[in-house]
Amino acid sequence: MAQHESDSLITTEVSAAETARSEIPDETVLRAEELDVYYGEEQALDDVTIEIPDRKVTAIIGPSGCGKSTFLRCINRMNDQIPSCRVDGSLAFQGKDVYDEDVDPVALRRKIGMVFQKPNPFPKSIRDNVAYGLTVQGKTENVDERVEESLRAAALWDEVNDQLDSSGLDLSGGQQQRLCIARAIAPDPEVILMDEPTSALDPVAASKIEDLIADLAEEYTVVIVTHNMQQAARISDKTAVFLTGGNLVEYDDTATIFEDPEHDRVEDYITGKFG
Amino acid sequence: MSTETDPNSGITGGDADAHRRRDRRIRRLLFGCTSITVLTTVAIFAVLFDNTFNFFYDVRFHEWLIGLVTEFRLFPEQRVAITEFLFDTEWRPSHADDPRFGILPLAAGTLLVTVGAAFVSIPIGTATALYLSEYARPRTRKYLKPTLEVLAGVPTIVYGFFALTFITPNIIAPVAAAFGYDVGRFSALSGAIVVGIMTIPMVASISEDAMSSVPDELRNGAYALGASKFSVSTSVVLPASISGVMASYILAVSRAIGETMAVALAAGVTPRLTTNPLAEIQTMTAFMVDSTRSTMLVGSVEYQSLFAVGLALFIMTLAANLVNDYVKRSYREVYR
């Protein structure tokens, strides 16, 4: 626990602490080993091995179609919704392979929240949106407190506290996305997956979400897929670069990836020479 | 280059007027077809109203209107009091000595069948829609939905026959007997069940369309929060599609109100103010079928009562359609 606290203190500081932070040994929360994913005949992920540390922000970057989102959706088994999807290899959450027979994907998703590319609030009130996860998970105690805490944590409380009963759809796009973040953290998951959470938002709204992600890493492990390299550089501790064919080409501290990547292809991608 | 029009540019020419005329002709033709529907509706209403007026006042509305204008004849004497029509509890228009024209027994018959039918079609139709939209594999849905829609195309007289020869003797009678009740050849329950079955496809098909159009993002959002499939179906998909689902209910109800042949065969021809579903009753529509087949004098009160009942039916289904419109508008959620 002490380990975590020191981690999160550092995480809130800016990149000057980058090197210091990387020296602290990470506790792995997610570990993929030789993970292959197929959609029918097509291979979407090829032999991915990665260890994602607890209470850090891990960014996943790469060109379109490189398997970033596929990887993300493997973690909470959202790929189960796609009938043609097949997964080989192992993907462990807190040491337990999430594709084991005895794993209940519903229970898994209660530990691993997700925020999507397009804000997708339910056509319900703001309060009911945030409380939805609590309701379906049977956590019916102190719902109002949890709703308020989550909205505060998502930096939305001050904007909506006087309209909790109005529809979540009446909010602006950026507010809707923060509502979705509040909704994801209300049931208090361990990990939050974010699939290009700012790509549908204007720059001001996007920067609010970025600030929020840094705060979230104090309590949660954040894995974020992004198309925006500056964003990855700004907010993440670790960066994984996927290139075409579903290959994880390089995975390291964000500073290393952006300043001194090992592979030329990664450097080309980051400097915009391809992708 | 000058600003003068180049005669050889090809964008001017003598065809312009011809094109305009053609467009106008086509527009008039299409408008003509459209107006047939509108005019028919207006004509039906006018005939119903004209004759209903005759039922109450022994003079057709348009005749009275002409009389009023040419000879200043004011309101004629009432033949049947409107209060009798609305509140009397007896309907026996062909009674020789004491005919009575209280629509309540017929309206109650229609209501009994309609409410009973809703208890069948709404739960089963909604469950079917949820299954097709949320649970069925794409292949299953591909074959099942057209099958369901075929069910909607079965002639209603066939359903009535089915109720008379199968539902009543093989389902209702044994069950009623087990509880110590006796049930005759006709019963409101039989009519309600068969009209309910008949309107299941309507509820299922329209609700399924509404549920399928709920964006997948909402489902994924709920799944990602650890919702089970049942939670996603009932707490996200159903509320998000509620306007379409409600619309299907109201359409089914309005169809049940107007349904004729099945109830005429299944529910009977005895007007009776009752809430007992095992009793033989008569609906408004069944009365109209029955009367038009019997030998009655054109122009008699009994004959005119057909129009009054018809107008009442017309108003009921119109009301249902207006409610449908209102529900659709007020429940509509806009997805961005």
From TrEMBL, chain A:
Region (Disordered) residue spans: 1-21
GO cellular component terms attached to this protein's record: membrane
Gene3D superfamilies: P-loop containing nucleotide triphosphate hydrolases
Molecular function terms, GO-annotated: ATP binding; ATP hydrolysis activity; phosphate transmembrane transporter activity
Gene Ontology BP term (one): phosphate ion transmembrane transport
Pfam families, alphabetized: ABC_tran
PROSITE patterns the record matches: ABC_TRANSPORTER_1, ABC_TRANSPORTER_2
Domain ABC transporter: 30-270
Superkingdom assignment: Archaea
Keywords carried by this UniProt record: ATP-binding, Cell membrane, Membrane, Nucleotide-binding, Transport
Protein name (database record): Phosphate ABC transporter ATP-binding protein, PhoT family
Organism: Natronorubrum texcoconense
Automatic annotation (TrEMBL), chain B:
Positions of transmembrane segments: 29-49, 103-132, 153-180, 186-206, 227-251, 303-323
Keywords: Cell membrane, Membrane, Phosphate transport, Transmembrane, Transmembrane helix, Transport
Locations listed in the record: Cell membrane; Membrane
GO biological process per UniProt: phosphate ion transport
Family annotation (InterPro entries): MetI-like, MetI-like_sf, Phosphate_PstC
Chief location: membrane
GO CC annotation terms, alphabetical: plasma membrane
Domain ABC transmembrane type-1 residue range list: 107-324
Its membrane topology: Multi-pass membrane protein
SUPFAM superfamilies: MetI-like
Record-level Gene Ontology MF annotations: phosphate transmembrane transporter activity
UniProt keyword Iron, yes or no: no
PANTHER family documented for this protein: PHOSPHATE TRANSPORT SYSTEM PERMEASE, PHOSPHATE TRANSPORT SYSTEM PERMEASE PROTEIN
Family: Belongs to the binding-protein-dependent transport system permease family. CysTW subfamily.
Function summary: Part of the binding-protein-dependent transport system for phosphate; probably responsible for the translocation of the substrate across the membrane.
Name by which UniProt lists this protein: Phosphate transport system permease protein
